[in-house]
């Protein structure tokens, strides 16, 4: 999915994206000073939510990074479900507050639960739905 999205952005909009996975992030970290944020190394990147969600090592860097645009594809996978938030949902909520623009894409209908839709809407605008 990531490769397809990367190709589409390049072919349709001439936006080159550098794919980041765990090994490439480690490679960047080896090249830069320890206090430098590896997510600031490249201007335009594409990275899987699954690469970031489990690694507590990235959290501080993510909390201290700022992006112009974050695009979350398959956004229905980051919706809050029930009373516990998934790692994907927590990560998406963190990232939603770290950019000027958040774009969430999905072709999958939501699960029909108001809380799921409200959690996605509140990532876009925290004041959109007061009571999930």
From TrEMBL:
Gene3D superfamilies: Tandem AAA-ATPase domain. Signal peptide: none annotated. One of its GO terms (molecular function) is ATP binding. It holds the Pfam family SNF2-rel_dom. Residues 1-127 form the Helicase ATP-binding domain. It comes from the Bacteria. InterPro entries: Helicase_ATP-bd, P-loop_NTPase, SNF2-like_sf, SNF2_N. This is SNF2 family N-terminal domain-containing protein.
């Amino acid at each position: 999915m990531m490769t397809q999205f990367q190709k589409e952005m390049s072919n349709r909009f001439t936006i080159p994206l550098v794919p980041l996975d765990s090994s490439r992030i480690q490679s960047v970290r080896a090249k830069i000073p320890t206090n430098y944020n590896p997510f600031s190394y490249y201007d335009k990147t594409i990275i899987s939510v699954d690469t970031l969600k489990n690694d507590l090592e990235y959290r501080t860097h993510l909390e201290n990074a700022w992006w112009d645009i974050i695009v979350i594809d398959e956004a229905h996978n980051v919706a809050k479900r029930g009373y516990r938030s998934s790692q994907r949902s927590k990560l998406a909520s963190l990232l939603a507050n770290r950019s000027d623009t958040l774009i969430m894409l999905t072709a999958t209908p939501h699960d029909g639960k108001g809380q799921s839709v409200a959690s996605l809407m509140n990532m876009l605008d925290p004041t959109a739905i007061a009571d999930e």
